[in-house]
Amino acid sequence: MSLTDHSEAATGLTAAAVDGSWTLDAGASSVEFTGRHFFFLPVTGALPVRSGSAVLRGGLRKVEAEVDAAGFSTGNANRDKAVRGPGFLDADRFPSIRFTGEHLTTGEPWRVTGLIEVKGRSVPLAFTVDTGACAVSPDGTRAVVHATAELDRHACGVSAMRPLVGPRLRLRVTAAFVRTAE
Hints:
Strand order of the largest sheet: 1-4-5-6-7-8-10-11
């Protein structure tokens, strides 16, 4: 999704600009990650976004997002199959990874805190929003939000291959939202 398709320039991210109800445009959103193999070789990949929504009325009421665990992809078929398996994501039993954000701090930087559910286990997660890279369309109907977080995979129960795979994943999210009529 591009906000530059409009004749006017997109506006920056402000609490007033995003006040309301929003639906996540899954096709225009992404979740990418970087982890470490052998603790120093970077591995990057992505998870497809399924759905999501946000309600902001004078502050955050709730943000929900769901990604497809079975869609885990790094471009290495053997690694991807192993990570989708029981030792890591166990995507057959737990096909979704969900984030529920419950608090928004609009200082500098903006932060969204909540819980991520992986393999049936919920752990706290905080995203830092890159407000300088975010935008709201001039008519206020679309918004793109960029955020990052660091996730401890062991806390989520994804603990296979501890000696070979680092415990932390850096998450990069691009969330494209469409305002919902009220």
